[in-house]
Write a structure and sequence with these properties.
Strand order of the largest sheet: 5-4-3-6-9-8-10
Structural class: alpha/beta
Distance between the termini: 56 Å
Shape: globular
Number of strands: 17
Number of helices: 17
Helix content: 25-40%
Oligomer: single chain
Length: 591
């Protein structure tokens, strides 16, 4: 009863009822509804035997604990249930197209019932015995929706810097209504008494470490799964090795997924979900594809042997016959002219990839979407190629992306490239068609509140916003506003920290150039989602404490002078200032 505090006036039955309610709520979430109801009945009987009410209360509600599960069982028997079909899933995209044509060509009368109605109705069976037998017929483990096969994963360190980024991502995952699973992989968490060593020797940045694993596991998103990996010493000199090493360890140690058709979606922690990511098959007109690519229906669906990824113009130097940047080192240290040969070996399939083929299938970045059967062996190759790629390129920022591409080529996994998943470079007019910006062309002409920004939905809508770059624009008074993840205070999740100060509400509407308008659109969404995520986190973990809701953290380009010894360093961030709320705002005064 310690977990169910009750008033002193209540008797023992109150405790038992609370416990029974908790058991019922837990068991009804079981995968098999039939087993769930049977378990509720068994659990209720056990509770009734364990809970021994006093004689005077026994008459008050003697059968309550039996009546509840019995009622649930009766209601469930007479409720229609949808059985998994042994036939392939309906092609929802084409059915929608058939519906559109049917509505145009007919008056929609009863005699003109659309052809797909019978297919959908055939999946529903009502009646007592239909439901009862349905519990034991649900052997088909395929999900009810294609997107239930999605398993999003992302990798972080154990720093406060990536703790708040992870929380913003997880909040956006929850807010967007994304289906499927999500796992946060975290490495290099400090052990008790080992904080300084971990920070200086193993961590890939100078950010302060989170106190413990329990702190890492705090999130407003209750569907989050966690995986902790050890410290990777290679990350001390090349911090991005954390991603392939974590993925390889997670893939090799996790239990096999219950769904053999699971699709792994690897993204970065500095991404937010604007809309749910989907792997439902689409026609080419609902995708942004390079003109040179020949496509068919379902080009966007990851399949064994054919992953899907976002197009990134990072180049394929490893597939070039000669690259001047690395020629001397290749000749001196590896005795070859070819990048891929030095990393993957002379017998690797990656050596057969040409520059043209490389740009068509391996010029890629997150989200990477790959079937589980391919992902597990692939990660071991990716992990093996990353240190050599980093050494050869002098720890280039995107070395792990090149090693990913080489590993994919080595494993015979050419990717389908799409440009419609991500928004990342608003200030570059030349990059607009490499991302999902064309889908926002009409929306960007409409007014929008910066404090309550909106996101278009539907098939032709962006999925991810990647805030990997610096974004800046001026408001109508000439004040410069900027957003960069490195300028957000590491302890932004703390209960007493102010929130980020967003630009004025008319910030987006006053921009005059297409680039500035895209920039303002990006910034308005970043400020809004970050503050929402922080508040959701605090509402869950700051119960009984002061929650600061003031928006006073102004991000700016230039650093501050060091704070005095008597100032809490959390309130003296290096690249931000605590400023008054409200507008007009003159900009931060340099100390």
């Amino acid at each position: 009863c310690s977990k169910f505090p009750v008033p002193a006036a209540k008797n023992e039955w109150y405790c038992c009822d609370s416990l029974c309610t908790s058991v019922i709520e837990s068991l009804t979430k079981m995968v098999s509804p039939g087993l769930g109801v049977l378990a509720i009945g068994t659990g209720a009987l056990a509770l009734a035997l364990v809970c021994k009410p006093e004689r005077e209360t026994r008459k008050a509600r003697p059968m309550a604990i039996y009546a509840a599960p019995a009622l649930l069982l009766i209601l469930y028997l007479f409720t229609p249930v949808e059985h998994p079909s042994s036939e392939p899933a309906l092609n929802t995209a084409r059915l929608r197209e058939e519906e559109r044509r049917w509505l145009q060509e007919s008056e929609g009368g009863p005699e003109d019932a659309p052809p797909w109605q019978d297919q959908a109705a055939a999946k529903e069976d009502d009646g007592v015995f239909g439901n009862l037998l349905g519990w034991f017929e649900q052997k088909d483990t395929r999900p009810a929706h294609p997107d239930d096969r999605i398993h999003i994963i992302f990798s972080t360190s154990c720093s406060h810097f990536q703790q708040w980024q992870a929380e913003v991502l997880l909040y956006s995952h929850m807010k967007s209504g994304q289906r499927g699973r999500i796992t946060r992989m975290t490495s290099a968490c400090a052990k008790e008494g080992d904080h300084a060593k971990a920070n200086n020797e193993f961590m890939h940045d100078t950010k302060e470490l989170v106190e413990d694993k329990e702190h890492v596991m705090r999130t407003s998103n209750g569907r989050t799964e966690f995986y902790f990996s050890p410290r990777f010493e290679r990350a001390a000199t090349f911090k991005f090795a954390n991603k392939p090493f974590s993925c390889a360890q997670w893939a090799s140690t996790r239990e096999a997924p219950s769904n053999a058709d699971e699709v792994i979606v690897l993204i970065d922690p500095d991404m937010i979900l604007l809309n749910p990511l989907s792997i439902e098959p689409e026609e080419s007109y609902n995708l942004i594809i390079k003109p040179s690519h020949e496509t068919s229906f379902g080009y966007n669906v990851p399949k064994p042997g054919t992953p899907v990824a976002q197009y990134y113009p990072i180049g394929v130097p490893w597939a070039e016959s000669f690259d001047a940047r690395y020629a001397d080192k290749l000749q001196r240290d590896y005795h070859t002219k070819k990048f891929s040969e030095a990393v993957a070996g002379k017998d690797s399939k990656s050596n057969a990839v040409t520059r043209s083929n490389g740009w068509d299938h391996y010029n890629i970045g997150p989200p990477y979407m790959m079937s589980w059967v391919d992902f597990k062996p692939f990660t071991q190759t990716w992990k093996r190629f990353t240190p050599a790629t980093a050494d050869l390129t002098n720890n280039d920022l995107i070395a792990e992306m090149w090693s990913y591409a080489m590993a994919a080529a080595h494993e015979g996994l050419p990717h389908n490239l799409l440009s419609n998943y991500m928004l990342a470079t608003p200030k570059s007019d030349s990059s607009v068609h490499n991302e999902a910006w064309p889908w926002l062309e009409e929306d960007l002409k409409q007014p929008m509140s910066c404090h309550r920004p909106t996101v278009p939905t539907g098939k032709r809508a962006p999925t991810l916003l990647h805030y990997c770059q610096n974004n800046a624009a001026k408001d109508s008074t000439g004040v410069t506003w900027m957003h960069h993840k490195g300028h957000v205070p590491d302890h932004i999740l703390d209960c007493d920290m102010p929130l980020l100060k967003p630009p004025p509400d008319d910030f987006y509407n006053t921009q005059t150039t297409p680039a500035d308008r895209r920039m303002a659109w990006t910034m308005c969404h970043l400020f809004s989602v970050t503050n929402e995520a922080v508040l959701a986190y605090r509402e869950k973990y700051c119960v009984g404490k002061f929650i600061n809701t003031s928006k006073m953290i102004y991000l700016h380009q230039h650093g501050n002078r060091p704070c005095g010894r008597d100032v809490d360093p959390r309130f003296c961030p290096h690249l931000a200032s605590i400023v008054p709320e409200g507008y007009p705002f003159k900009g931060a005064v340099k100390s």
